[in-house]
Amino acid sequence: MPAQTHSAGAPGALPERFAETVRALARPQDIRGLSLIGLHVVMAMRLCALFERAARDPVPDLAQRYRSVEAAVGVHDLVRAIVATWPEAFMVNRPCCLAMSPDEATLAELVRSTCLGDRARFDATIAGFVRSDRHERLFDATVRAVALLQACPA
């Protein structure tokens, strides 16, 4: 049986410019490949989701993890900015899971772009996904969280 193809106008067809992005998101990325800062941010998202379900404030536990209240507040502010700017519910995996959800992989790329000081890459990562008028808030929160995590005691 021949392979099915979709024309550009067919329901369910992906525009070719998004095809590679969708294929990349379908391949789970391993959390062990992240930088320490990227790992901290992705794990913070996972922990904040657990704390939200338990109706608990995550900042004390994040502060203990980072040995810095300021870093914990900065990361929690980033989590809140993501929740406010993301176009749909942010999907996280369990803290013990080595694979990242597509949302977590996108967040890890935002952190990577920020660490590299590459604003254009940051914006390109979420272009067409997060409304452009929300990029600035998300970028500012990411820069602050990354800077505070980098300043944490080792």
What does this structure look like?
The chain is mostly helical and 154 residues long. Helix content is 60%, strand content 3%. It contains seven helices and two strands; from the N terminus they run H-E-H-H-H-E-H-H-H. A two-stranded antiparallel sheet has the order 1-2. The protein is globular and about 45 Å long. The N and C termini lie far apart (58 Å). Mean pLDDT is 89; it is low at 1-8.
Topology summary:
Blueprint: H1 16-26, E1 29-30, H2 36-53, H3 59-66, H4 69-85, E2 99-100, H5 102-115, H6 119-126, H7 135-150
Antiparallel strand pairs: 1-2
Helix pairs in contact: 2-5, 3-4, 4-7, 5-6, 5-7
Provide the β-strand percentage band: under 5%
Low-confidence stretches: 1-8
Q: Which structural class should the secondary elements be placed in?
A: mainly alpha
The biggest beta sheet, please? 2 strands, antiparallel
Count the beta strands.
2
By DSSP (H or I, 4+ residues per run), the number of helices equals 7
Q: Roughly how many Å apart are the termini?
A: 58 Å
Give the topology string: H per helix, E per strand: HEHHHEHHH
**Shape by Cα distribution:** globular
Q: Helix coverage percent of residues? A: 55-70%
Rounded radius of gyration (Å): 17 Å
Strand arrangement, major sheet: 1-2
Taking all residues together, what is the mean pLDDT? 89
Could you name the key traits of this structure?
single chain; 154 residues; two-stranded antiparallel sheet; 7 helices; 2 strands; disordered N terminus
Question: Would you kindly provide a brief summary of this structure?
Answer:
This protein is 60% helix and 3% strand. By secondary structure, the protein is mainly α.
